[in-house]
Specification:
The chain is α/β, with parallel strands linked by helices and 447 residues long. It folds into four domains: 92 residues, Winged helix-like DNA-binding domain superfamily/Winged helix DNA-binding domain (Arc Repressor Mutant, subunit A, Orthogonal Bundle); 176 residues, P-loop containing nucleotide triphosphate hydrolases (Rossmann fold, 3-Layer(aba) Sandwich), CATH 3.40.50; 110 residues, Helicase, Ruva Protein, domain 3 (Orthogonal Bundle); 42 residues, no CATH class. It is 47% helix and 12% strand. The strands form five sheets. The protein has a five-stranded parallel sheet with strand order 5-8-11-4-12. It has a three-stranded mixed sheet with strand order 2-1-3. Helix 6 crosses helix 7 and helix 18 packs antiparallel against helix 19. The longest helix is centred in the last third of the chain and has 20 residues. The termini are far apart.
């Protein structure tokens, strides 16, 4: 039996019997010792198995190798890649449901708790409305609610997640009604066959109505009966009732109190507000940038480096389009660099970013700018910086942000001290009792 095959079988054996974690026994050196060969030889063979797709490699220190089949069976996932930057990155790929959403245990923690309640409430869940600016992740949150229902056994695995953007039908409410409820044969000219609506197609699953503020009052009223009793009429049939047990998720960028009928809002027991990117902690913005850059790295199969100035520009900019805009900026930047740099690695510098990101930077005189002066940072170093954000450093960042905000709003010294005191008290609770508590501060405190 050749050494490569023996290495593969030994690795499979270790993965079957040991906990899959950062363990020296998954390193090339340990495997080499079992066969009395050099570490370099073992590493060469293992990397060949990685390229073949039968072994997964984690570029930590030391590097770890896992049998792909055993790894996927134990983690109950289908891995997209064979190489991961760290164990954290590997485990992030295995996260289920709401853990995929950055901030799930931070600024979005209470919001996600409401989403779980909406899905699990017997017998067919509760209607929920997600309110927030464009690009904040409303669609993703709706998808994760569906996945949560599947993984928790609340929804059947064969059930569907069906999404409809109501804004596409803003000027044609009749067509929207037809798509939602379906029609019977002869309901109108051209209706040659009976047609199921989305409510029926989403039976036992989830129907997500995005931009629900575009629903005309008549269409909102047609939903009342279904929301109350789970029954509805098809277009052209006012005699027969049809049933569906789909869960309803609504989303809007507009103030629900201003754009939805009171009678509609009364039938939606859970309304949540998802914050804009500027309202979320800096540590979550760092996590988002790192995750998006890693996604581009894996997709393009190239190492990615970013200059200190470019990284700071990404952090400092206030994205009106929120997470969606940040993602587009990073994608466009990587595409721009990919076209102009014929190298094995992408090196992102300040001027590679969209111009509007650095055009207003006060700390940089572009006429004296020399890109050779930019210090390049590997994404792996960004990961280390992200991990180094201890609770104490997070508190320090939040105190600085709070003082700056108070000064911008021209608040007096007493108000600044009160708000900072609130943050420090919150930190002490966080540190002493529950490390999952989010560091937050109210926008205004009445003294």
């Amino acid at each position: 039996m050749d050494i490569k095959k023996s290495l593969s079988q030994e690795l499979k054996k270790r993965c079957e019997t040991l906990k899959l974690c950062e363990d020296e026994r998954f390193s090339a050196a340990s495997l080499a010792g079992a066969f009395h060969i050099t570490r370099n030889t073992a590493s060469q063979y293992l990397n060949e198995l990685v390229k073949k797709g039968t072994v997964v490699k984690v570029n930590s220190r030391p590097v770890y190798f896992f049998d792909r089949q055993i790894l996927e069976e134990k983690l109950k996932v289908s891995l997209e890649h064979s190489v991961y930057d760290s164990m954290d990155d590997l485990m992030r790929m295995t996260n289920h449901d709401f853990e995929k959403m950055i901030g799930y245990n931070g600024s979005l923690r209470a919001l996600i708790s409401h989403c779980q309640a909406a899905v699990t409430y017997p017998d067919h869940g509760l209607p929920i409305l997600i309110y927030g600016p464009t690009g904040t992740g409303k669609s993703m949150l709706a998808n994760l609610m569906y996945e949560y229902g599947i993984h928790q056994g609340i929804l059947d695995k064969k059930s569907k997640f069906i999404a409809l953007n109501c804004s596409e039908y803003a000027n044609n409410p009749e067509l929207l009604t037809d798509n939602l409820f379906g029609h019977v044969k002869g309901a109108y000219t051209g209706a040659e066959n009976e047609q199921a609506g989305l409510i029926q197609l989403a039976d036992q699953g989830v129907l997500f109505l995005d931009e629900v503020h575009c629903l005309k009052a008549e269409c909102q009223e047609k939903l009342f009966q279904f929301m109350d009793k789970g029954i509805y009429h098809k277009v052209g049939d006012n005699e027969n009732w049809y049933r569906s047990s789909c869960r309803l998720i609504f989303a809007t960028t507009e103030d629900p109190q201003q754009v939805l009928l009171r009678t509609m809002l009364r039938r939606i027991p859970i309304v949540i507000s998802i914050p804009s990117l500027s309202q979320r902690p800096q540590v979550e913005k760092i996590e988002l940038i790192y995750t998006m850059l890693m996604k581009e790295r894996n997709h393009l199969r190239k190492d990615v480096f970013i200059s200190n100035l470019a990284y700071q520009a990404l952090l400092d900019h206030e994205y009106k389009g929120n997470i969606g805009e940040l993602q587009n900026v990073i994608r466009a930047t990587c595409a721009n660099v990919l076209v102009h740099q014929q190298q094995n690695a992408l090196r992102i510098r300040l001027l590679d970013l969209p111009e509007y990101l650095f055009a207003s930077m006060n700390t940089l005189q572009l006429k004296n700018y020399d890109q050779e002066d930019e210090a390049m940072i590997s994404i792996t170093d960004l990961n280390k910086e992200r991990k180094s954000k201890t609770p104490l450093l997070q508190l320090y960042d939040r105190l600085l942000e709070t003082v700056q905000t108070c000064q911008d709003e021209e608040e007096d010294l007493h108000q600044i001290i009160t708000r900072c005191k609130y943050l420090i008290q919150n930190f002490l609770i966080f540190y002493s009792f529950d490390r999952s508590i989010v560091l937050s501060v109210p926008t205004k405190i009445t003294c």
